[in-house]
From TrEMBL, chain A:
Tagged with keyword Transferase: no
Transmembrane segments: none
Name of this chain's protein: 4Fe-4S ferredoxin
Domain 4Fe-4S ferredoxin-type: 36-66, 73-106, 160-189
Organism: Slackia equolifaciens
A GO term, aspect molecular function: 4 iron, 4 sulfur cluster binding
Automatic annotation (TrEMBL), chain B:
Binding of [4Fe-4S] cluster, residues: 52, 55, 59, 87
Lineage: Bacteria, Bacillati, Actinomycetota, Coriobacteriia, Eggerthellales
GO molecular function: 4 iron, 4 sulfur cluster binding; electron transfer activity; iron ion binding; molybdenum ion binding; molybdopterin cofactor binding; nitrate reductase (cytochrome) activity
GO biological process, one term: nitrate assimilation
Natural source organism: Slackia equolifaciens
Residues bound to substrate: 813
Domain 4Fe-4S Mo/W bis-MGD-type: 45-101
EC number: 1.9.6.1
Protein name, UniProt field: Nitrate reductase
Length: 210, 847
């Protein structure tokens, strides 16, 4: 192999690796089943055997449909279509042979992400009596609570605003599945990275929405 | 309707409000186009005022149309109750018109054997469907009048209910007409009638802005009356030390924001109220002057049993339930004395300390207390008694009349008050609180309807109340049933019997059933003929809400396909059935309905607005007897005081966006009465005109119950008697049903709306976590619920949205795939005949 060929191969390898990175970088914010740790840990352990997908009674888990990369075939969720229902016995974790889904004490220890409410889209913030996310939440009054306050400029109505408790929310996504707002998108979403989610929640709370 | 300048200004404001509200306009116009024809939307928008189709709050909405389609529905910012806001049902209200399953052609079932199978209906033309229904009705009518019936609704607009009642009572001379409001408000009605001799609350929604203490008695207002709960909460937040006590058998979302939650054992609310009354008297904390000026005391029939058997109403026990005997205050106090705090605590499970705290509120003369109740109190085997006991408390403590001090029964449906109660579409009623059994009332009605004196004596005996009617149907004793604005095959209790699924009661298969509907329902699955009808703003109509407010909703669009206005259907059937009949030598149909219908042209005389106005103006004579000399004479001679329910001319409701009756004309201006029987300036909403005409000034609290016998409301002692069933080894759980926020009643409209169906797609059995664990049931497991009456399967939730104590479970009734009413018993309050949907005893197993 001549020097130029070697250089070309190296260059190609670098480009290929970068391409792979580009293709795989996206999955770090994919929602993974209960028990999954960060994406690196999860992908290192997951063997794409599909047992958790089979074990899910709600068919909430689906195989990652990425075209290429280490995440292909790994279990993920589209919570708007079908959220995790937080089965008390967590059958997905029980089915995992490699601890890609780490055993948990119970469903309140699940950490799939954090719900973030888009306060400009949320109709409860506008004093409509919605709060669908709050009533749908499997951890009602814990993961989502209501901030009751007077509606500005109206002495006979109050705002019932849903508030995410970042300590308790497990990111199951049932709030996202149930949110009646859909145009242009649901008023609530799950953000997998909790630090990022907390920043977003702070930004939202700072917004003045009337 | 032309777009006036005011409408235009409003439309602009609405467009701005809509933009702020997140663009439901865009979503809705997409829906309208997708569901119907893809018209271009180049036409100009028009705005119509309306009232929400759903609950008894009666929120005002504005309907925007373009090119014959509703493109948006938003809260009416001019409506002083909801001020432009809605709950989630109201937010997506416009979409109920455009569900994919909308009925647009008459349907006929040729083979009754296909009932309940989900098939067997074929499309037909109107003539065939009308001829068929009319011939069946006429045949039954001629053969045996006791074998026909109409089942109506608190969702039927006022003028439609009035005409239906007129056809049934005066046209067919039948009292077999009853509404679903029987299953909703009847206990409140009988309570008001027994205590005050006039129906409906004396107070209004503004009481919510003035109370110091709110007490919810078995009412999940946060979910069932969303916008009023927003108002209650606002007052709590803005007020100084305003408190909310939630008395309930089961923690709900209302409990979640209450200041104190008192969980009592089902049925023992009777004892709690009596213990508070006893406390007030024993501790000399009742209002002496109020008692002396205003009250009379009575005892009533006791040990009245339950309607376990079909013959209960005729039994010695059942036929004497209404009897009362006057007694002294001291005798009343003596009867109460058994209800010590300790006894009530032992029965109810609420601590003596908490009960005493509650009693202390009534003992404080400076506190304004507002009691609020709905189905927990009304759907109760002693529902009427419990209504009495709440009124009793407020009366002896003098907490009645001042803004913020009142006993206010919330109403469930948009026009349970306006139509069922005020028009009187009940088996024992005539319009405006009048009774068929009362001779003076019949004479007065005959005067207004131009009937020969004595004509209505044929209906002096009340007809079948709801449960009696359906029990008779299941026994094979009803040949013709017509229903409108309800879905009884899902909403009635004891469906295992009524739908002929118990192998014993199969009458439903032999009853000819006609149904007015807008979507396929469980009921249309049992219909022989389905009439596709106009829905909500596809015609003009009126609702009367919980605060006696009558509002008009304008026609905004035409009904789809061949669907027709219910009144058109009624006239077509009435014309056919009454053909050849005469009243006073005149054609009977023309005599009764000639004022709106041209028999020769076979059509309405005028448009929707004109027809509604004409019906209203006739109906209005009942509460404005001076409009007709013969009626005025009877009103005067018999001291009927019909003006106590005075209604305004039709157009006033349009220009003023609704008015609360009695509406009084002062210096040429029509004014609401917000606080009945409370003296004060009419312009501020007090009952100045009524008290001047019939009442007495200067009494305690400056109130005067001028419609009550001797101007004195009746405090009737009502004891604690146990529920119709109580848990035992075989059926160890209480089962309670009800509404949840996202869906209206049986879901026939709200489940057609994608957003609402997404928001709450399934009915769940809410259980206490320990109860579930004890049965080996996990959250999400399927359970089988079985009562003495029937069984159904349902998924368990231990999430706590509804958070029952051990021993009680709750499930909503909106889902047709989860027919909870297959198991609910049909035992009713012996006085009101309203079923107790809250206390069926069940067994639960893993399915």
């Amino acid at each position: 192999m001549g020097l130029s060929t070697f250089a070309k191969v190296c260059a190609g390898a670098i480009v290929g690796a970068e391409a792979l990175l580009v293709l795989t970088r996206d999955t770090s914010d994919a929602i993974r089943p209960p028990g999954a740790a960060d994406e690196r840990d999860f992908l290192a352990r997951c063997i794409k055997c599909g047992r958790c997908i089979e074990a899910c009674p709600y068919k909430a888990l689906v195989a990652d449909a990425s075209v290429v990369g280490p995440a292909v075939g790994a279990p993920t969720l589209d919570v708007r279509s079908q959220a995790c229902r937080l089965c008390e016995d967590l059958p997905c974790i029980a089915a995992c042979p490699t601890e890609a889904l780490h055993p948990l004490q119970g469903r309140s220890d699940v950490r799939m992400g954090l719900a973030v409410i888009n306060r400009e889209l949320c109709i409860a913030v506008k004093a409509m009596r919605c709060e669908v996310c709050y009533r749908a939440c499997p951890l009602i009054d814990e993961a989502i609570t209501i901030d009751y306050r007077m509606r500005e400029g109206d002495d006979i109505h109050s705002v019932f605003e849903p508030i995410i408790n970042t300590e308790k929310c497990v990111g199951c996504g049932l709030c996202v599945e149930r949110c009646p707002v859909g145009d242009p998108e649901p008023a609530i979403k799950i953000v997998r990275d909790r630090d990022e989610a907390m920043l977003l929640i702070e930004e939202e709370q700072a917004k003045v929405v009337v | 309707m032309d777009v006036t300048r005011r409408d235009f200004v409003k439309a602009t404001a609405i467009a701005a409000a809509l933009a702020a509200a997140g663009g439901s306009l865009a979503t809705l116009s997409g829906c309208a186009q997708g569901g119907q024809s893809a018209q271009t939307t180049t036409g100009e928008s028009q705005i119509h005022t309306a009232v929400c189709r759903f609950c008894g709050c009666g929120c005002g909405v504005l309907v925007e149309t373009r090119d014959g389609k509703v493109v948006s529905v938003t809260g009416d910012p001019d409506n002083q109750s909801n001020r432009g806001l809605n709950c989630i049902k109201g937010y997506y209200l416009g979409k109920i018109l455009y569900g994919p399953d909308r009925l647009t052609k008459p349907l006929i079932r040729d083979d009754a054997g296909t009932k309940g199978t989900g098939s067997g209906l074929r499309e037909a033309e109107w003539e065939e469907a009308l001829d068929l229904v009319a011939s069946k009705l006429k045949e039954t009518w001629k053969a045996d009048k006791s074998r026909l019936a109409f089942w109506g609704s608190g969702q039927q607009p006022i003028t439609e209910g009035y005409l239906t009642a007129k056809f049934w009572k005066a046209g067919l001379l039948s009292n077999n007409i009853d509404p679903n409001a029987r299953m909703c408000m009847a206990s409140a009605v009988v309570g008001f009638m027994n205590v005050f001799q006039t129906d409906e609350p004396a107070g209004c929604y503004e009481d919510l802005d003035n109370a110091d203490v709110f007490i919810t008695w078995g009412a999940n207002m946060a979910e069932a009356h969303p916008m009023l709960y927003s108002r209650l909460t606002a007052h709590k937040l803005s007020g100084d030390n305003v408190r909310h006590y939630d008395l309930t058998a089961c923690k709900t979302r209302t409990s979640a924001s209450a200041d104190k939650v008192l969980i009592f054992k089902p049925g023992t609310d009777l004892a709690i109220a009596n213990a508070i009354a006893n406390y007030l008297i024993q501790n000399d904390k009742y209002d002496h002057q109020f008692v002396a000026d205003h009250l009379q005391f009575k005892t009533g029939s006791e040990n009245i049993g339950n309607a376990y058997e079909d013959g209960y109403d005729q039994s010695e026990q059942g036929s004497t339930v209404d009897a009362t005997t006057p007694c002294s205050f001291e005798e009343y106090a003596e009867r109460l004395s058994e209800y010590t705090m300790e006894y009530a605590s032992e029965l109810s499970g609420v601590s003596v300390e908490d009960l005493t705290e509650l009693a202390g509120l009534f003992a404080d003369p400076d506190l304004r207390i507002m009691s609020l109740w709905t189905m927990g109190v009304n759907q109760h085997n002693r529902g009427t008694w419990m209504n009495h006991n709440i009124h009793n408390l407020h009366l002896i403590s003098g907490k009645y009349g001042k803004p913020g001090s009142t006993a206010f029964s919330l109403t469930g449906q948009p026009s349970a008050c306006g139509t069922a109660r005020e028009v009187g579409t009940f088996s024992h009623r005539l319009p405006a609180d009048l009774l068929v059994a009362n001779e003076d009332h019949r004479r007065f009605t005959e005067a207004i309807w131009d009937l020969p004196e004595g004509y209505l004596d044929a209906i002096a005996k009340p007809g079948f109340h709801t449960i009696k009617l359906f029990r008779e149907m299941s026994n094979g004793n009803i040949d013709f049933l017509w229903s409108a604005h309800n879905n009884w095959a899902q909403s009635l209790p004891n469906l295992t019997r009524f739908l002929g699924m118990d192998g014993e009661h199969e009458g439903i298969y032999n009853t000819f059933i006609a149904v007015n509907e807008v979507y396929p329902t469980v009921t249309t699955d049992y219909a022989d003929v389905v009439f596709p009808v106009a829905m909500w703003v596809e015609r003009e109509g009126q609702f009367g809400n919980a605060e006696r407010r009558t509002s008009v909703f304008e026609k905004a669009v035409d009904p789809p396909g061949d669907a027709k206005w219910d009144v058109w259907v009624l006239m077509q059937v009435a014309r056919r059935v009454l053909e050849g009949e005469t009243i006073n030598g005149e054609d009977a149909f023309t005599h009764l309905f000639g004022f709106i219908w041209d028999a020769q042209a076979d059509g309405f005389i005028g448009d929707d607005r004109e027809i509604n106005r004409a019906i209203w103006e006739e109906y209005r004579i009942f509460s404005n007897p001076q409009l007709k000399e013969s009626a005025a004479a009877i009103n005067e001679e018999k001291k009927l005081k019909m003006e106590a329910k005075q209604l305004a001319p039709y157009d006033e409701y349009l220009t003023q966006h609704g008015l609360c009756w009695p509406v009084r004309e002062v210096d040429g201006k029509w004014m609401s009465t917000k606080w009945r029987f409370a003296n004060g300036d009419q312009a501020e909403g007090f009952d100045e005109v009524g008290i001047a005409q019939y009442g007495t000034q200067g009494l305690a609290g400056d109130v005067s119950w001028y419609k009550s016998t001797d101007q004195k409301p009746s405090v009737v002692f009502r004891p604690y008697e146990p529920p119709a069933e109580e848990p035992d080894e075989e059926f160890p759980f209480w089962f309670c049903t009800g509404r949840l926020l996202e869906h209206w009643h049986t879901g026939s409209m709200t489940r057609e709306v994608e957003e609402l169906n997404r928001a709450l797609p399934e009915a769940l059995l809410y259980m206490n976590g320990e109860d579930a664990a004890g049965l080996g049931l996990a959250d999400g497991d399927m359970a089988r619920v079985t009562s003495r009456h029937g069984t159904f399967d349902i998924k368990v939730s231990t999430s706590g949205r509804v958070d029952p104590p051990a021993g009680l479970v709750f499930a909503p009734f909106f889902a047709r795939e989860t027919m909870v009413n297959l198991a609910v018993h049909d035992y009713y309050c012996p006085l009101s005949k309203e079923t107790d949907y809250k206390k069926t005893c069940v067994a639960i197993t893993k399915a």
